[in-house]
Amino acid sequence: MSNINTQPTKACLPENFFEYNGCLYFHDAINDKDILVSTQSLVPVVKACNKNLNANWHIMLHCINHSGAEVEINICLKQAAMNIDPITGYLAGCGVFIKNKRYFMSFLEASCGLDLPVYRVATQAGFQPDGELIFMYGYTPVFAPENVDFQGVVPAESMKVNESVAIFGLLDDWKLRVAGKVQGFAPKLSILIGLSSPLLPFIGESGALFHLAGHSSTGKTVALQLCASVNGPAAEPGSGALTGIQRWNATSNGLETLLASSNNTTLCVDELGSFAGKNFSNVLYDAVSGKSKVRMNVEGFGRAAESTWSQNVLSTGELTIEDRIRQDKVPVKDGQLHRSLSIPITAEDSRDEGESAEAARQRMGELKRNLLSLYGSAGYEFVRCLTGLLDDSDRALGWHQTVVCLKDAYRIRTNELTCRLQANQIELTDVEMRALGRFGILYLTGVLAVEWEILPWSSEDVFDVVYEAFSRWLDNYRNDENSKESILSGVQNYLGSQETRFHDVKVPRPGVVKADIVGYRLKDGCFLVLPDALEKLAEKWGLNAKKLAQLIDAEEYLVRPEKDRLTMRKDIYQLKVTGYCISSAFINAEF
């Protein structure tokens, strides 16, 4: 953390600029006259730019306003050159008045040539994209001063900052009165998720959404508060007090802004059922994609700079992610299932073994009170340790060395989880292995936090918590009655059980057609299912007829004479009948 005092001991001004009676002047040598630039004192104290000294130039000014109060402003020279008015307007709002904009711009330009402290400019929350171990923790820069060649860090004027990433209270107090009082796997898991996001850029994994699904009074809100307390204020949502917990009823653009402004720190989102927008599946994909939508640049032609982020998200709700996706009548894809991980929880998952419900309520009430005044210190300390790793000779690790070190540790921890699964005779599919990798990051997070004395637990505790969480996800994933395999098996059962409602076209045309017919059995044994019948069947899984037909087609069991149509038209009893034609081989297929 940088704690450098930027207030100058002696005014250092560019050539031909001087102060007199608390005002800033420029001396025009050619015309031998003094030009008033500002009626207040303006002193450049810091110049800042990127690692290569060739972009993002900023000047920080120390000002004394008309009331004698101190004002500091960080000015982006690019923005100033494009339009100085917003900057002079901001200064006026601070009680500092610019009388000559032209010479004020010259003052900023000339300040770049002064012998001032050189800072880095942070362009995004979290770790910076230039390969240096600099982390913006809200407004607080985190780096190891003894290992760098610059004197401080300032946020870029355009940087999005999440103000709910903040520190209050001491780490020792948070360990004793928060982390030390949690019981059960669900609250401990939420703290691990809260700490885990800074590891993602080193390991090379994209973020994931961990979702705690359970009925009311199962401890979901307390778990979410504990996760939020890692990086900032964690009051109960809706209480009116400051909190870093968001709600799912945000717009897609609003969610993007939240993600970008809290890059590399875990985002907490409450009440999945409150999402009332359209295309939840798309919003979910956008959240874990790590990149904002492409938009036009308002300053001119072309694309605007894209926001990026890499972080884990903790979500809660009574619905699982899969259930919420199906409410929009779209199928759940495997790619979503290893990025959006639903973990069922119960009230017992927030209690100690043998602890009564009343004792648990009292303990969690005390936890909630403690969370109002203790937050942010654990996340800050975790990042501080990450940026200051040393090798065996006590030399500081650079970015690439840190990547190698943490990737090796990640592989070891993931292998430990795999060995425990194999000992229990559990073999994983490719999708399940991808999901295991997400939980491996949580395991590594906990081991590091215990080693760095951030968490008052043991590594064995962490292992058990993460293994239990993965087991819950795996059971939910495999036993989901609405998985693709279960849906297709359900269609098979339907075709077999409803055989009498399919009229066999090899039988001569009946005198009376049954009113409850659902389709026809064609001469080659295929099933021609009527659209209304398939639509009604699809509703069982939250789908429509088209989506269900696409699932069958993906397994190559849908007969499609016309490749641009899912349905086919067939002449039956001199009538043209349209329906979805399912191959006879489907009835005996294995999924």
TrEMBL record:
Q: Which domain of life is it from?
A: Bacteria
Task: Show where the DUF927 domain sits.
Answer: 40-304
InterPro entries given in the database record = DUF927
Q: One Pfam family this chain carries?
A: DUF927
Name of this chain's protein: DUF927 domain-containing protein
